[in-house]
Design brief:
alpha+beta, Alpha-Beta Plaits, 4-stranded antiparallel β-sheet
Length: 126
């Protein structure tokens, strides 16, 4: 099992859209989200909002059995949910997920984060 922490600034004026995105993952798109994460071997994902002196940032932590493979699939999948997810991240954070291969460092989580969404797979589920 390996994990990663990614922190990216939220685009100006997009903080409420980031909150809605996280709410949508937890609500209307929950089934598609969970199916995607299980298919990718992701066992835990957390999304937080952090206020910094430079502005708002999105902090995402992710654990997976094969992290490099999971990130690669997030970057390249043509499945509708995965494309939607990439497009929203690009819009809200300005991050092209094709650059995820450069994000394999583990910076510490900030202590003053506001956790907005968390998902952990049920170890009993296939």
């Amino acid at each position: 099992m390996s994990g990663i922490v990614m922190s990216n600034p939220i685009a100006p004026g997009k903080v409420e859209a980031w909150r809605r995105f996280c709410q949508e993952l937890a609500g209307a798109r929950r089934q598609n989200y969970e199916a995607s994460r299980r298919r990718l071997g992701i066992t835990r994902e957390r999304m937080a909002l952090v206020e910094t002196p430079s502005g708002s940032a999105a902090v995402t932590t992710m654990d997976a059995r094969e992290l490099g493979q999971a990130l690669g699939q997030i970057m390249t999948s043509d499945l509708p949910f995965d494309r939607w997810y990439r497009e929203r991240i690009q819009e809200l954070q300005g991050v092209n997920q094709a650059s995820y291969d450069q994000l394999l460092e583990r910076p510490p989580l900030p202590q003053d984060q506001e956790l907005l969404f968390e998902w952990t797979s049920d170890p009993e589920s296939p």
